[in-house]
Amino acid sequence: MIQWVDPEDRALARALFRTEDRDNAEGLILRWVSQQGFGQAYFEDMELSVGAAVTIRLKETRGRIFVKVWPGTADHQCLTAQMRIQEAMALRGYPAPRVLAMPSALGQGWAVAMEYRRPGLATDVRLPGIRDAMAAGLARFISEARACSGWDSLPQKKLPDQRAIWPVPHNVLFDFEATAKGAEWIDEIAFGALQVMRSSKSAFVVGHHDWSAKNMRMGPTGIAVLYDWDSVFLDREAFVVGSAAAHFPVTWELDVRETPSVDEVASFICEYERARGVEFSHQEMLELEAGATFARAYKARCEHAVDLEGMRWQGSSREGLKQDGPYRFS
Q1: Phi, psi at residue 328, to the nearest 5°?
Q2: What is the pTM of this model?
Q3: What sections of 149-254 are H helices per DSSP?
Q4: Residue predicted with more confidence, 287 or 146
Q5: CB–CB of 305/179 below 8 Å?
Q6: Contact criterion met (CB below 8 Å) for 231 and 208
Q7: Among the CATH numbers 3.90.1200, 3.30.499, 3.40.50, 1.20.58, which is that of 121-324?
């Protein structure tokens, strides 16, 4: 019996598979792969986060497939709508992995199978032309996703309840209630941004809410492949672009600074506007500032929840938020 050793991995495994036994989890996934008609397969790799990202090698073809697993708390209808948009976009020629098996039950959770695609290189946003390609890629994404049938069945990104500042954390590792002490300054900044966001009027679009370097690879002409399609939601364009501008450098494949400077955030927005072909209005820019501020504050709050002593302060979103305060571009 092989168990996960790292405490964070053990917590994630319990949420996903209701077991800390890696052998049991792998067996569960391989049975699901067989049930989907892929035949005999072998486990190659697995990474745990909000979901499990699993690489499977097929015996018959010697090829690979990618399997993503979500906990049972994930909404099956939402996942299905998101995967249908991914498949539709792939068929249109957008750099997305094809969906090979739509979401279905895997133990107490849900799983989907996709083609294994790893073209291009890990994304360093500070290389010449990369930030511009990411911003243009987001503009193209929003335009093409809107043209796909079924986009209106996607889940809508919701703001926190009027009595709350934060949504339910996206990961079981983050307990905001238990770690409230010392985070009051983050809460205050987030609350100010929410006041603007709750009175927003900008247009709704199909957006990707984790538009960051960790979810894409780059080729010579732009984005070579885009991942994490369960981050696709209906939301206001200002919030989609604001979130992307606040987080676009994040990657764990490369040893690079993941928190953008104020100038880098502003440049991403300008490059998106250029690709969009229309400048944001003053009101849209106010909403975009609020969306970017809230996105950075949420990441800062997650950091605080797992680093109460501030041991990983340098280069963090907390450090950037403390230094820069709310974004102001208008």
Answers
A1: -140, 105
A2: 0.92
A3: 184-197, 237-247
A4: 287
A5: yes
A6: yes
A7: 3.90.1200
